[in-house]
């Protein structure tokens, strides 16, 4: 882990220097006439999924199963145990500048970087130049669900629900499989899917959306998830 952080720190210096040179050479990226103005009022929704099930499952796994999971999916399991401070978010969101997509404190700007996310998630077994792109003709949601779970067509058909006009699968439908599926690797994959659906990309509470399943299918093929996670972190704050 220390070697990974050291490597990323060196890269951050290069990125910072490049950013400063580019900013000086090309000037501001905003359109002419834009007025810098942080919002006076911000509506903040801090509702989140109940992660007790995921925490309990992780604690029940033995060291070998945890090791296999970490080797495949990095340190994302640690995200389920992080306590989010509502007060901290309320304080920081007041300094969010939607134009620059960063936090502005007086004259200093702060925004998460790809390198920092790489260090945070410690995902070492991906192809960093292979970025997620949605397939033009993807497999149907039902087929993807069957492939991931190893369950029947009838089972998959019954689990798919519509929430806010979006196809989803409820977490409780997958929870039983994560806990009791006879195939250890499938349990590990479904646990990782749950983290991506409930923690990293939570859109409908208690459900995992079809777009998360699409992304997760590509993740298993070695794509680099960090740019997508970073984009999804930033974009909703700008709306």
Describe the model.
The structure is a single chain. This protein is 51% helix and 8% strand. It is mainly α and 239 residues long. β4 and β5 form a beta hairpin. The strands form two sheets. It has a three-stranded antiparallel beta sheet with strand order 1-2-3, with no helix packed on it. α6 (141-149) crosses α10 (210-219). The longest helix is centred in the first third of the chain and has 25 residues, at 2-26. It is built from eleven helices and six strands. The protein has helices at 2-26, 52-60, 63-73, 86-93, 114-121, 141-149, 153-159, 171-180, 184-200, 210-219, 226-234; strands spanning 96-97, 102-105, 108-110, 161-163, 166-170, 207-209. It has one domain.
Could you give a short description of this structure?
This protein has 239 residues and is mainly α.
| Strand proportion | 5-15%
Please bin the fraction of helical residues.
40-55%
Largest sheet: 3 strands, antiparallel
Task: Work out the oligomeric state of the chains in this entry.
Answer: single chain
Domain unit count: 1
Shape: globular
Task: Give unreliable regions as ranges.
Answer: 1-10
Structural class, please? mainly alpha
Rounded to the nearest angstrom, the distance between the terminal CA atoms is: 35 Å
Mean pLDDT: 79
Number of separate strands: 6
